[in-house]
Amino acid sequence: MPERPPAGSRSLPxxxxxxxxxxxxxxxxxxxxRRTRAAVFFVVVVIGFIVGLVLDGELxxxxxxxxxxxxxxxxxxGNGMLFFVAHSVGLGQGVVTSPSYEYGNTFLLxxxxxxxxxxxDVHDIGTxxxxx
Amino acid sequence: MVDHLTLMTLHALLIAVFxxxxxxxxxxxxxxxxxxxxxxxxxxxxxLGWLMYPFPRS
Lengths: 132, 58
Prior knowledge:
heterodimer, A: 132 residues, mainly alpha, B: 58 residues
């Protein structure tokens, strides 16, 4: 097994790493040499996202006059590339009348928030605050 | 696919795997943490459901 690079050592600027970590789940960890964790995070976030779409969930965007939609939009956009790809092909419009609509939203928002936590984790590893 | 318990269990599984890999580095610690989080989410939700049972729906 290849030796894991020590925390704090990185080949790219931290901001770039965090941006890539946001765009593709697990990519930040992969670039920091955390291959197993990168693979696990990628699978977990992508599965959550796909299940959310299958359950007719909505990739929520900010709605004027609805403050909570701004928070939901942060979580939705937290999915990174998945969000933009799904939007570009017309997925994630949400079917409000579907019995699974709220379930789908839950999975989509959870996946986005997990991905945002990964960005913070990449920051901690990249700055050496987290050793592993 | 819309079965609440199945979806809740899948959700709990994803969350437990995610946080066990995010917060624990040792394999044994990770396994223990996974079962704690997974059990707390699933059993906690079921327990909460039973506690809410006496309350009227409307």
